[in-house]
Design brief:
elongated; 13 helices; alpha+beta; five-stranded antiparallel beta sheet; Phosphorylase Kinase, domain 1; three-stranded antiparallel beta sheet
Length: 456
């Protein structure tokens, strides 16, 4: 039996007595040897000699040293524990981060698309089997091809249940890559409005990426309004209903959906027409999402189509809901004239649509820009008022442009007094394309997609 050297005699006796009394209550009782260790004394017995009588005891610590030593030990242990926890956490975080980076670099981006899609709804109901879509489009045959654009080719398909669909197939050299594909999948699936195209789902296999939309039999607006033969079918009432429908769709994107959405590529080829000639805004690959309290942003990568892009966006990369308003204004003037803004022809000369529309308005001759097929009938006053609305949308100063809510009100109520438009924004000739049909001919250092869509 031993006590620590600093322990008083009576305390040592009490400690040893307590140790002996513990034997019956431990698993040592009845055994040939055992040991009970306590903080200040210990007890041991064996059937052989184990104690060296010459061994010197440990000298007692100096007075006051014991508490200090105990405090130091506690501090060291706590510090080492905290360091160990922090080191372990950092290692786990770095390992997770590296694993995530490796996954994103080595795995196709559609894995994240599938994960994100599951947050929106059942992936099984949104994702189509690639072989089914391949069969529906007759192996993407030329006979089923509806057109092509920056994303790739668009094909008509017919599912087993007879449902007709339009299938966008991402081209290998597409200007719109994985980001745009994911953007459109995650964005359009959240949107529900009668003037927005409905995305039925997507399909992925290897490098193949497909977007499956509802099929709209009358294709895109540009195939009607810019075609000398087909635009005769668009009387003013039909054109005005299309304009109002587009405005409602943009209003939903800007104010009525859960997030503020800026389309950034609003143009005639991105408006599709159903069997009743109702418009549906399409192609959200370049759209940007914002929180409800946000309405603008900046970018160093300019995307869109020259002629429809607001000046502050082209020059400085600033975009906002008013950028879509500008594009809408250009589209309104195109609907009135029946001509593309890049190829507006007056007589024998080519002019800038916005410039000519402004000069005609300022000179009191707005009827000069109206499509001749529309000048017959009692609707001339309404057409001129619509030109007025279009000019308000394309003003140089962002602040002077109306919101889509105001525009919808103007288009539905002829009692609303319209303000006088100021001079619109004009594009420098160096910012235009030499041929709109050739999406690779761009006289600008900016990354701009110029699409000639025939989507549906």
């Amino acid at each position: 039996m031993q006590c620590t050297p600093d322990l008083p005699e009576q305390a040592c006796s009490d400690c040893l007595e307590a140790a002996v009394n513990r034997i019956p209550n431990t698993n040592l009782y009845g055994k040939d040897g055992g040991r009970i260790l306590q903080s200040t004394c210990n007890f041991r017995y064996e059937i052989y000699e184990f104690f060296n009588k010459t061994t010197q005891g440990i000298p007692p610590p100096p007075p006051g040293k014991k508490k200090q030593t105990t405090r130091t030990v506690i501090i060291v242990i706590v510090t080492l524990t905290i360091v160990a926890i922090i080191t372990t956490s950092v290692c786990i975080y770095m390992r997770f981060k590296n694993k995530k980076r490796q996954t994103s670099s080595s795995s196709p981006p559609y894995e994240s698309i599938q994960t994100a899609a599951m947050d929106i709804g059942s992936s099984e109901s949104l994702q189509y089997n690639f072989s089914i879509i391949k069969a529906a489009t007759n192996d993407f045959s030329e006979d089923n091809k509806l057109g092509s654009g920056g994303f790739g080719a668009v094909y008509k398909g017919k599912l087993i249940d007879g449902t007709e669909v339009a299938v966008k197939r991402l081209a290998g050299n597409s200007q719109q890559g994985d980001t745009e594909f994911k953007n459109e999948v995650l964005l359009v699936l959240k949107l529900q409005h009668r003037n927005l195209v409905r995305l039925l789902g997507f399909s992925i296999e290897g490098k193949e990426r497909l977007l499956i939309y509802e099929f709209l039999p009358n294709a895109s607006l540009d195939q009607f309004v810019f075609d000398q033969t087909k635009r005769i079918l668009l009387d003013w009432e039909t054109r005005y209903n299309i304009i109002k429908g587009i405005a409602k769709g943009l209003l939903y994107l800007h104010e009525d959906s859960r997030l503020t959405i800026i389309h950034r590529d609003m143009k005639a080829s991105n408006v599709l027409l159903d069997a009743e000639m109702n418009p549906k805004i399409a192609d959200f690959g370049m759209a940007r999402l914002f929180k409800p309290e946000e309405t603008q942003g900046d970018t160093s990568r300019i995307v869109g189509t020259y002629g429809y892009m607001a000046p502050e966006y082209v020059r400085h990369g600033h975009f906002s809901v008013k950028s879509d308003v500008f594009s809408f204004g250009v589209l309104v003037l195109e609907m009135v004239t029946g001509q593309q803004n890049q190829h507006f022809q007056h007589g024998d000369s080519l002019e800038d649509l916005l410039s000519f529309a402004w000069k005609s308005w300022r000179n009191g001759t707005p009827s000069d820009i109206i499509d001749p097929t529309l000048k017959i009938g009692p609707s001339l006053r309404d057409i001129i008022r619509t030109i007025h609305v279009g000019l308000l949308c394309v003003q140089e100063n962002v602040i002077n442009r109306p919101t889509m809510a105001s525009i919808v009100h103007m288009l539905h109520s002829f009692s609303v007094t319209l303000s006088v438009p100021s001079e619109p924004a004009f594009f420098d000739s160096s910012m235009k394309t030499s041929r709109i049909e050739n999406p690779t001919t761009i006289e600008s250092i900016n990354e701009v997609t110029i699409s000639n869509f025939i989507p549906r």
